[in-house]
Design brief:
Strands 6-9-10-3-11-12 form a six-stranded mixed β-sheet. A four-stranded antiparallel β-sheet has the order 2-1-4-5, with no helix packed on it. Strand 9, helix 16 (504-517) and strand 10 (522-526) form a beta-alpha-beta unit. It starts with a helix and ends in a 6-residue tail after the last helix. It has helices spanning 2-10, 14-46, 51-100, 103-109, 111-153, 158-202, 204-209, 213-265, 271-312, 374-379, 404-409, 425-429, 438-447, 451-456, 474-487, 504-517, 553-559, 561-571; strands at 334-341, 351-358, 363-368, 389-394, 397-398, 411-414, 423-424, 464-465, 492-496, 522-526, 538-543, 546-551. By secondary structure, the chain is α/β, with parallel strands linked by helices. Helices cover 64% and strands 10% of the residues. The protein contains 18 helices and twelve strands. Among the domains are: 2-312, Up-down Bundle (ABC transporter transmembrane region fold), CATH 1.20.1560; 414-489, Rossmann fold, CATH 3.40.50.
Length: 577
Amino acid sequence: MLGKLLIRYLRRYRLFVAGVLVFQFLQALAALYLPTLNADIIDNGVAKGDVGYIWRVGSFMLLIAFVQIASNITAIYCASRAAMGVGRDIRRDLFERVSEFSEREVSHFGAGSLITRNTNDVQQIQMLAQFGMIMLVSAPMLAIGGVIMALRQDVGLSWLIAVAAPVLIAIVGVVVGQMIPLFRSYQDRVDAINRVLREQLTGIRVVRAFVREDIERERFREANQDMADVGQRIGNLFVAVFPAASLVMQLTIAGVIWFGGIQINNGDVEVGTLFAYIAYVTQILMGVIMVSFMTTMIPRAAVCAERVGEVLATDTSLVLPENGVRELPEPGAIEFAGVGFAYPGAEHPVLGDISFRVHPGQTVAVIGSTGAGKTTLVNLVPRLFDVTSGAVRVGGVDVREADPAALWDAIGLVPQRPYLFAGTVRSNLEFGRADASDEELWRALEIAQAAEFVRELDGGLDTPISQGGTNVSGGQRQRLSIARAIIHEPQILVFDDSFSALDLVTDAQLRQALWRELPEVTKLVVAQRVSTITDADQIVVLEDGAVVGQGTHDELLASNPTYQEIVESQLGAEVER
């Protein structure tokens, strides 16, 4: 997976990759040629006292050193450009893929894990691409070229290299074999700590309300310690590589000096040759050490690439039609025809055989006990999920056959948990329609009963809103969310328990304004309070995912036991049965 991913994205930066190869090759040639020139200076210049020879060869060495430096800098630049581009492209593709996911795929991976994959995991792949292009290119060149040049200097000492290199490779192989499962475990723990931290930040009010700070601190401490323990085991293996490699290298150099000194004493080898041989041995073993360093990075990057590839390879369960219907023949109409829905792996369906129709301009309410399937039902209308049986039709067209843009243009959704984005009141309202004028924004705020408190804010429409809307109250968030949906000018407004944070007076005023100002807009309302839906054209009563009653408030109050129980529990009134 790692190789396929890197090839796929590095292909877009082939010019920079070619630059790395060319300039690293020049840098390696320069590095391999310098020890030979140094040996010539010692044997032919210093030993014979030829100052002119020293100056000539020394000047040439200086020129080659400048070529080596310039080539190395250029290669690093090309590698950095390519690696940063790879990281950017992977993050972009991940974001676009996740943006296509339905609630089903997001729930499968988890928000915390998706964030980790798009940040930490991509960073590990990016680091491997950057260092890999530099080290995995130059290290083999130095090692292979060093072997050739060392053999040219003295074949008799080469048995030391033949012993040292396999020992280093064996050490690295053992360490990498133990690192791979540890890195996979480490990334899982990164997901876990990200999830715990995210839950604590988003649920800070609940934590404080129930005085669970100490319990949550302990929960975070356990996740943090678990991650630290795995990280320490990885660190211990990682740290062990370099002392072992350094020990092998120093023992090899000591062996070269020992046996080379004997050969010099016997007159078989010159001093310059021995110095060159030591330089080549160092280059060979440094090449092996560089590869060793990279091999300690590869396992973690491989795990990260596997996790990233899993997201990129996951297709959304919402299959978009190739030639979706763009024109909805019955604007504002909604129809549920034998609708059933079950979550993946669930033993029982959430919804079963739901059938009812909402005519254009009607107000239809959905009510039922907690867990009856109300939110799931309305989420099928904008196609946040796909039905597992039956069909949902909007504007007379099956939502699975409608063009997504046309479908979403026709629907304004106010979710159960209103969410505001970091920005201003204006920027949040313009999510509904970017070209809305100030007059249209204030009209939507008036209908949503939010104009008064927005006028009281210091900046009015330009008042800053923090992420999630945490600097305004729950009721204010709901009203701004409703205003945002109104600005969209949809044919259908879907309210998923969107009045729960409002007091009864504001609730009544908002509903009256909606009915009065937007009479032609179809309204599908999920509600907990009976008072919110008494004037609806039709009320659908859900129980355990099935429709157990349909009619007006008065009709259901007279004939439907489930609705009677809901009314009794809320109003405390005796209902004749």
